[in-house]
Amino acid sequence: MSKARQEFGLLGERIAARWLMRDGWVLVAHRFRVGHRDIDLIVRRGDDVAFVEVKARRDERFGGPVEAVHYRKQRELGRSARVWVDRHGSDTLRYRFDVVGVLVVGQTVRVRHVPNAFRLP
Fold first, then answer.
1. Nearest-angstrom CA–CA distance, 66 and 52
2. pLDDT at position 74
3. Is-contact 69 52, C-beta < 8 A?
4. Which of 104, 115, 3, 94 is nearest to 55 (CA)?
5. What distance in Å separates the CA atoms of residue 41 and residue 52, rounded to the nearest whole number?
6. Which terminus of the chain, N or C, has fewer Cβ atoms within 10 Å?
7. What is the DSSP string of the chain?
8. What is the pLDDT of residues 48-75, one digit of tens each?
9. Could you tell me the domains of the chain?
10. d(CA 62, CA 68)
11. 8 Å CB contact between 11 and 57
12. Cβ atoms of 39 and 29 closer than 8 Å
């Protein structure tokens, strides 16, 4: 992945984190890594913990950013989330998977937050 793409991804994650914090979430972890996989953001509000995948795009030529979180990525997020829960979790917390799509076109930024975007079997 090119440096420009990495920087754009980080920009999307910063935008998503600010968006979530304005909604009352507290940032618990940024880019929690397990091997070669990572979870972009882990946020908490009360007893709810959300594992958040952030997708940033410059246009919608290939579909919206939220739709880019396909089954394989969901499965990887689930595996990483289980590791986080084993290390830091609690029986009193509720867990979910959210997706935040960030569309940056010129100076315009659109954010779409999808709570409970998917469930794992």
1. 11
2. 93
3. no
4. 104
5. 5
6. C
7. --HHHHHHHHHHHHHHHHHHHHTT-EEEEEEEEETTEEEEEEEEETTEEEEEEEEEES--TT--TGGG--HHHHHHHHHHHHHHHHHH--TT-EEEEEEEEEEEETTEEEEEEEEEEE---
8. 999 999 999 988 777 777 888 888 999 9
9. 3-118 (3.40.1350.10)
10. 9
11. no
12. yes
Check residue 121 and give its pLDDT: 65
* Residues present in the chain in total: 121
Burial of 52 by CB count in 10 Å (0-12 exposed, 13-18 middle, 19+ buried)?
Answer: buried
Which residue's structure tokens are 């979180």? 69
Residue 12 in this model has a pLDDT that exceeds 70 = yes
Indicate the pLDDT class of residue 84, thresholds 50, 70 and 90.
Answer: very high
pLDDT of residue 92: 96
